[in-house]
Design brief:
Elements lengths: L7 E11 L2 E7 L12 E4 L2 E9 L2 E6 L1 H6 L10 E6 L18 E11 L2 E7 L13 E4 L2 E9 L2 E6 L1 H5 L11 E6 L1 H13 L7 H6 L4
Antiparallel strand pairs: 1-2, 1-6, 2-5, 3-4, 3-6, 4-5, 7-8, 7-12, 8-11, 9-10, 9-12, 10-11
Length: 213
């Protein structure tokens, strides 16, 4: 589990194909010395396991499912990546609960600067748009962001200077591909309603039955 607060921007310095997956060596002098073999690190929002801890980074493996659902299969050596170690019990939760399970690859549809704020518009495959609501949370390349607007197959966010300066979004322009993880709460609600909800939606009996009242 992660928070979506990026701890360091690292660099992919080497990679190789392993059994249909991809092994990545990431240079990260900030968090690298603290990483331990077996722990989870979010790389551009995808939860990966540290296979080897290095003095200034780590080695991790992305499986076939991760490569199919994310941009990790297309990142060339030299790419900059957002990094976050897993949330420890008792840590401050400054972002939102991010699982590190990428739903899909989105694309920067537009970017504009307004004062010190950068406004981004992202396009997603249509089936994932139902999980996004204004003022809701979304993780883009592992960054916890607040949705400002939802329209058709796009959603918008406002990026403050600190986030822009300390993540890979600083270099993201129109057409840039990003990993997107929608809020897990929306997925559970959808599944619960799909199994038990009546056509009329949520009722008092439904809330009572499931312990909300």
């Amino acid at each position: 589990m992660f928070t979506g607060l990026i701890q360091e921007v690292g660099t992919v310095v080497a990679d190789r194909s392993v059994g249909g997956g991809r092994q990545l060596q990431v240079e990260a002098p900030g968090i690298g010395p603290r990483c331990e073999v077996g722990e989870s690190v979010a790389v551009n929002g995808a939860c990966l396991t540290v296979e080897e801890a290095l003095r200034n980074g780590f080695v991790c493996h992305a499986g076939t499912e991760t490569l199919e659902r994310s941009t990790l299969g297309r990142l060339p050596v030299g790419s900059r990546v957002n990094l976050e170690r897993a949330l420890a019990v008792g840590d401050r939760l400054g972002g939102h609960f991010v699982q590190g399970h990428v739903d899909c690859v989105g694309e920067v549809r537009g970017r504009r600067e307004q004062g010190s704020t950068a406004w981004f518009e992202f396009a997603l495959p249509e089936q994932f748009m139902r999980y996004l609501v204004p003022k809701g949370s979304v993780a883009v390349d592992g960054i916890s962001l607040t949705v400002t607007q939802v329209s058709g197959d796009t959603f918008s966010v406002a990026i403050i200077p600190h986030t822009l300066a300390n993540t890979t979004l600083a270099q993201a322009g129109r057409g840039h591909a990003v990993n997107v993880e929608t809020d897990v709460l929306a997925k559970y609600v959808e599944r619960l309603l799909g199994q038990h909800g009546a056509p009329g939606g949520i009722t008092e009996d439904f809330l009572t039955e499931h312990g909300f009242l």
